Amino acid sequence: MALLNLRADGRTAKPRPSTRSLSPRRHFGAIAFVAPALLIYLAFSIWPAFNTLYYSMLDWDGLNAAEWVGFENYAKVFTEPELFNSILHSLVLVFFFAVLPIGLGLLLAGLLMGSGTRGLSAFRVIYFLPQVIPLVAVGIAWRWLYAENGPLNEFLETIGLGALAAPWLAGTDTALIALGLVGTWGMSGLCMMLFVSGAQKIDSSLYEAAAMDGAGPIRRFVSVTLPGLRGEISIAAVITTIAALSSFDLVYVTTSGGPESATTVPGLLVYRLAFTYERIGHAAALAIVLTVLILIFVSVIRRLTKEKA
Amino acid sequence: MKSSPAVLLARHIVLILFAVAFLIPFVGIVLAALRGDSETGGFQLPHTWTLQNFAIAWEQGRFSDLMLSSVIVGAIVVPSTLVLATLAGYGLAVLRPMGHSAIMTTFVIGLTLPTELVIISLYYNLDSVGFTNNYMGVALAEVALFLPFSVYWMHTHFSGVPRALIESGRIDGASDWRILRELLLPISKAALTTLVVLLSIWAWNQFLLVLVLMQSPTRRTAVAGLGYFVGEYGTDIPLLAAASLIVIAPVVVVYLIFQRSFVAGITQGAIKG
């Protein structure tokens, strides 16, 4: 009843809005702020994702009439060696993109434990640099470093290990490892900086208390630094694992999946199956399997790094 | 805790060793790009220094077209994502309409979905409405790809704004729109700058979406063009190195100018695990 709200100056007093119960008009206004972003996201990300799920049940070449085949394409992903191997390769990459960089990051955080930040900001600029550079350019640089007559082999010759020199990216035994190490190079700086800046936020009294109890540097690292970095480790693991499993740019430029399919990854095959071989159903099924794999990894990482009750 | 000089020295040596490891590939391609003779070498200095490779790469790679495409795509993607994410972040964090947490969850799920999941359908859907080989199509796809992080970022920022500030605006009878524009935006400069820096770098570096949605050679972005360039000039190291440096230069410049914002974005954006 607006009449009851009449004030001395003749204007109606505005009811105090509370965030808990919005009036219908305000509620509509609030939705209007969110709607544009939500609509574009739904139309260009969520809808295509569900559409891919639908494609994964079809036998379709992208042109002619599609045929419904249910889960046959999924069976193909797990039985056709080419497709299944790409998943295995991406699991190998998780070691190089995620496990190694996190290990190196923890090593550095441990070494800098309890030290001031002096001079760290200059290093920070360099350490984050690999995160900024387009992976296509990173791939080109490493192709050159790894080349048969490239700097890496030259260096081996110089220090008398010429016998070890090899065309790293062209050998079936070495290509995947060489590719993985590029990922290690790309991800380590990020992990190092995340952990070092995280370690600086740890209350120094915890270290002092541990030292009073007679804990040596290793004990202090395990009992104070590691638990203190739980959040940073969790997020670093999520970022690097997603980068490993969904890698595309780097592989496309450095090896294109070769030699002899030794370095194929799901991303590369999704692209080829869909746009070169016109096997849309297989490409979509592989993309769904990849997504499920990522979701499994992410939830396992979250669970492992959760605060122990 | 005080550390002995020996320990400090050891720490710095380790830091420097890692820094060298991160810089080696860059030093290498700079040297390779400046080499005059066509012999490819390692880290020894070129016999003859030259900038000729940049000119040739620019010509051969048609980098005038490529760079222009990158700028056009970025000029659409960055401001649109910024505006959409700011409105949505404010709506979800401050106004909280019904279903706001479900909507937020939908955006957060997007943080883990790979581009590979959407690329196939995106191509066929956009193709059916004539949006492939079209700046708008690529730009919209990129906006959707960057929205989850951007909305999450702005949501986190607006959640941290003191409630009292918003309440004071409401008591004064200001509309939601005015509270955002006159009270919140002035104190959001740092958060917005960080988002602009991240979006600019991500938009410039995006490869897979452009590779699929932009098949026309004149409309490709610089990074996608570089990907094709490798296929054509795979063995001409000085030329490849020069082309790479042309493509890298803009992001490195933006990064060096705004490195504080970039670092803040990566480290703070990652805080909530």
UniProtKB/TrEMBL annotation, chain A:
GO terms for biological process: transmembrane transport. It is a multi-pass membrane protein. GO terms for cellular component: plasma membrane. Gene3D superfamilies: MetI-like (1.10.3720.10). The chain crosses the membrane at residues 28-50, 87-113, 125-145, 175-196, 233-253, 280-301. It holds the Pfam family BPD_transp_1. Residues 1-22 are annotated as: Disordered. Residues 87-301 form the ABC transmembrane type-1 domain. Keywords: Cell membrane, Membrane, Transmembrane, Transmembrane helix, Transport. InterPro entries: ABC_transporter_permease (IPR051393), MetI-like (IPR000515), MetI-like_sf (IPR035906). It is found in: Cell membrane. Belongs to the binding-protein-dependent transport system permease family. This is Raffinose/stachyose/melibiose transport system permease protein. The lineage of its organism: Bacteria, Bacillati, Actinomycetota, Actinomycetes, Streptosporangiales.
From TrEMBL, chain B:
One of its GO terms (cellular component) is plasma membrane. It is found in: Cell membrane. The chain crosses the membrane at residues 12-34, 71-95, 102-123, 135-154, 183-204, 237-258. Its main location: membrane. PROSITE patterns: ABC_TM1. GO terms for biological process: transmembrane transport. Residues 67-258 form the ABC transmembrane type-1 domain. It is a multi-pass membrane protein. Keywords: Cell membrane, Membrane, Transmembrane, Transmembrane helix, Transport. Belongs to the binding-protein-dependent transport system permease family. This is Raffinose/stachyose/melibiose transport system permease protein. It comes from Streptosporangium album.
